[in-house]
Fold:
Amino acid sequence: MADLIAHLAPTRLLPEGHYGADGAAGVSARLVEGLAAATLVARRGAAGRLAAACAAAGLPLADAPRLYAGAGLEAVGTGPGRWLVFAPETGGAALRSRLAALAADLAAVTDQSDANLVFDISGAKARDALAKCVAVDLHPSAFRAGDAATTLAAHAGVTFWLADAAPVFRFAVPRSFAPAVLRALCAAAAEYGFALAGTGRG
Structure:
């Protein structure tokens, strides 16, 4: 496996293409473009009121590691009173303003649109490959559609969730660590065939 990517600069994203075993890819990854992101952090003692305010605006929230969707937003619980919120096709400033208006004085809002790269990881062998990368039980009986986790992958803190039971896992990866995380995923998925899209030619 090391020979497949040894010639590529470790600080750059792997270029799109097929890696590892020949034939159909058992694991596919695609860089997701066009998402704005922000953190929503409840002020002390305000998590319940914040969740109620969001629910009233059409975004049901709970204080748990889950995916919540509504009002054109997706929010992922990342810790007590903390969510990472995404909106498609909108600027980071617009999302931050929308969340700040919604939360009033109940939460702190920070634009994270440039902080992370987002990847969709799918395929018949996606669970097997990801099990080599994260210390989370990904068996279908333990990690179901909508479940989320914030953990380490390739020594980087990542947040991921099961977008649907196909399976499609969506990963938010710190931008500066994305090359290392992609290399780890490539190594884990090579035996199944790994198809990467959206990262250009390197």
Remarks:
- Residues 104 and 149 are 27 Å apart (CA to CA).
- The longest strand covers residues 156-164.
- The chain has two domains: 2-32+115-197, 35-111.
- The mean pLDDT is 93.
